[in-house]
Amino acid sequence: MTGAGTNRSKPSLGGGPAIILVRPQLAVNIGMCARAMANFGLTDLRLVAPREGWPRSGAYRKGAYAAAAGAVHLLEAARLFETVEAAILDLNFVWASTARERGQHKPILTPAEAMPKSARKITSGEKHGVLFGPERTGLANDEVALADAILTFPVNPAFASLNLAQAVLLTGYEWMGAATDAKPPFTTVQRSPAASREMALSFFDYLETELERAGFFRPKSKQPVMRRNLRNMFHRMQLTEQDVRSLRGMVVRLVEGPRTGGERGKNPRRGDPTPPEPLEARPDEDE
Q1: Are residues 63 and 94 in the same domain?
Q2: Residue 163: Cβ within 10 Å count
Q3: Handedness of CA 159, 164, 169, 172 (dihedral sign)
Q4: Which of 175, 243, 166, 148 is nearest to 204 (CA)?
Q5: Domain end position, chosen among 159, 179, 199
Q6: What is the DSSP letter of 19?
Q7: What are phi and psi of 171, to 5 degrees?
Q8: What is the pLDDT confidence band of residue 286, given thresholds at 50, 70 and 90?
Q9: What does the pLDDT look like over 191-213, one tens digit per residue?
Q10: DSSP state of 276
């Protein structure tokens, strides 16, 4: 099953540090790690001595693939190793992810600090990896000793244990931010240009005329302040041309009443048909 944000027609990012799961215990966590990796363009998944072996068939395989939610290509490409040493032989730099201070006098960085360093080094041709320990115990001290530096997360000190896939997700997020320009994947499409001041002032004059006729500006002495406040409210909206058309059209309908028989209604205050105004409301294309 793939998610709503999956689009196979768009280019997929790849690369980044290797994600090395050491003695993972649950198939579902392996699948969720693959999904987290796919979210942030990480493509090198390595498994060290999974408790249930790998690959597997039946329910174990089904659970992992279901949790991957479309990132099954990473599960199928995952490499299996018997030891941590074997899994890191080709790497130039290794991070050890841990929530505990190990007294090993290594540099200790958060993902936000670590991933920019890895991004620069990987760009220059180095190969980096991140070790993640088993769900229940984390990495052993001897496994941490194989790493160049410690990766840890700024979490609640009273509840510092992260789910394995969450740790991979947070690391991947910081990797993406470091390796790319970290812009949102999509932006607002501006379908209507900003309203000109002439257009906005014409609407204000029309609206204020009708509000004054309806007795809105009371007491009279506060009318100038109320007008300014009203105009400033609309200015804060950064009105587009379509916004002004829609707003003016709504006021017209409130003033004139509903259309009948395909014709404009009569202005209930004036008793005669009101000529069409140039800024009648027109719905947006997708409304």
Answers
A1: yes
A2: 12
A3: positive
A4: 243
A5: 179
A6: E
A7: -65, -45
A8: very low
A9: 899 999 999 999 999 999 999 99
A10: P
pLDDT tens for each residue of 141-198: 999 999 999 999 998 888 878 899 999 999 999 999 998 876 766 677 778 999 999 9
Look-up of token digits 């390796």? 179
* 56 and 128 assigned to the same domain: yes
As a whole number of angstroms, the distance between CA 26 and CA 241 comes to 56
Instruction: Tell me whether the omega of the peptide bond preceding residue 55 falls within 30 degrees of 0, making it cis.
Output: yes
What residue numbers bound the domain in which 253 lies? 188-287
Dist. CA 133–CA 128, nearest whole Å: 17
**Contact between residue 170 and residue 162 where contact means Cβ atoms under 8 Å apart:** yes
Look at residue 10 and tell me if it is in a domain.
Answer: no
Q: Is the domain of 228 the same as that of 144?
A: no
What pTM, to 2 d.p., does this model score?
A: 0.68
DSSP-based three-state secondary structure for 142: helix
Boundary of a domain, candidates 149, 179, 209: 179
The two three-digit tokens of residue 117, written as one number:
């360093």
Under DSSP, the state recorded for 151 is E
